[in-house]
Design goal:
The protein is of the alpha/beta class and 289 residues long. It has nine helices and 15 strands. The protein has an eight-stranded mixed beta sheet with strand order 6-5-4-3-2-1-14-15, covered by helices on one side. Strand 1 and strand 2 form a beta hairpin. The chain has a single domain, classed as Ribonuclease Z/Hydroxyacylglutathione hydrolase-like (Metallo-beta-lactamase, Chain A). It is globular and about 85 Å long. It starts with a helix and ends with a strand. The protein binds zinc ion (ZN).
Amino acid sequence: MQKNRKIFFSILCGLIVLIVILSSIVFHGKNETPLSVVFLDIGQGDAILISQGSQQVLIDGGKDGKLLLEKLGKYIPFWDRNLETVIETHPDQDHIGGLVDVLGAYNVGAVVETRMQNDSQTFKKLEETISNNKIEKIEAKKDLTIKFSDGAMLQVLYPSESVTDKNVSDTNLYSVVVKLTVGKSKFLFTGDFPTTQENELFGSHVDINADFLKVAHHGSKYATSDEFLNNAKPSDAIISVGKNNSYGHPNPEVLQRLAAHKINILRTDERGDIEYDCQNLNEKCQIKL
Ligand SMILES: [Zn+2]
């Protein structure tokens, strides 16, 4: 009896060792938990969801809360009521309009924003909700880092320092620029960052090289210069834009510029939500078709 037990335990131990070895071979190079980046089709505006397991970061919230919550419900499991971080690139309606509803529907861990202020009712309501719900506020400026598992991380590249000019009339000027590094892939999110500020970014020797570029300001002609594209060198350009919008975004010149740089153009008004899956650390993230 004693002998049989010994044999049984030896076989069991052997099997466990074998399973551990096999699984380490199978999962080698794979993200323990896959990460996804979704450019949500919320009409004219920006809303980008980065998810890894139960950790989510939302960059901007479009202008319509109801539509945004519908979209988030598609990508965040119904039992996960926590949204770890919301990044507000700048206080314009088409970037923060949907965020008050998000703060009501999810337990938001922290809001990352610059010190820019805005006179709009939406901005005031948002700030009020943040303070009433005692949500942590983190100032967005260079070198702020948000970590995911498996070494993936988001880094703020711009603004380089605190925005002291709080009531700036053109809020696009200090739009937060963020870079996501996941395995071999890099995403660059530019809010409505204008060409006039690009030199400041180049001057601070920030590495803006990326595979996937969220085109600044919905494809406006006041952004995305040739020099910017020469530095960023993306393979894909994602334009978050509403169908038949009154601004004429994206600008035909910007589309031509992107095409001249041989960059694939993907538009939310044409494709709906644009989702990238990052499953394997040794390969580039893949667009989900
Ligand atoms: Zn905008």
